[in-house]
Write a structure and sequence with these properties.
Layout lengths: L2 H35 L13 H16 L3 H21 L6 H13 L2 H17 L5
């Protein structure tokens, strides 16, 4: 294998990792949106998880993966949680903004097992909570 082949292999592996993180994030947010809308009348249901939330969350994953300083990552995560909390009160499509940013932060830090546990527990909480809220 020459140097050109090694570069192509590393490029493919990096793209596969980013695509896997995007799919995992999008599927989890779709599942959470379905669980949150369960029990509502069709007129009251929102759309499934909007692409805005998926793109903002994936942007946080990308930023967290590119940073290496612990304090910088903590400040970025804190800022994204504050912005998501403020936007979720104003925009109906971002009602799951804070848990989505927590999930994206865990994925960005590389804590995939913790992100899976958060996804499962978040789904259980939404399924066991009262419908309509």
């Amino acid at each position: 294998m020459d140097a050109g082949d090694e570069e192509l292999v590393s490029l493919f592996q990096g793209a596969t990792e980013w695509l896997t993180l995007l799919i995992l994030l999008a599927l989890t947010l779709q599942l959470w949106a379905w669980a949150a809308d369960r029990g509502l009348r069709p007129a009251d249901r929102g759309g499934r998880s909007g692409w805005l939330l998926v793109l903002l969350s994936f942007g946080l994953v990308v930023v967290m993966r590119l940073l290496h300083a612990e304090w910088t990552m903590a400040l970025v995560l804190c800022g994204s949680l504050l912005v998501a909390g403020l936007l979720s009160r104003m925009v109906h499509d971002l009602r799951l903004g804070v848990p989505a940013m927590l999930l994206a932060g865990l994925l960005g830090l590389g804590h995939v097992l913790s992100a899976i546990v958060l996804a499962l527990l978040g789904t259980l909480v939404l399924l066991l909570s009262r419908p309509g809220r």
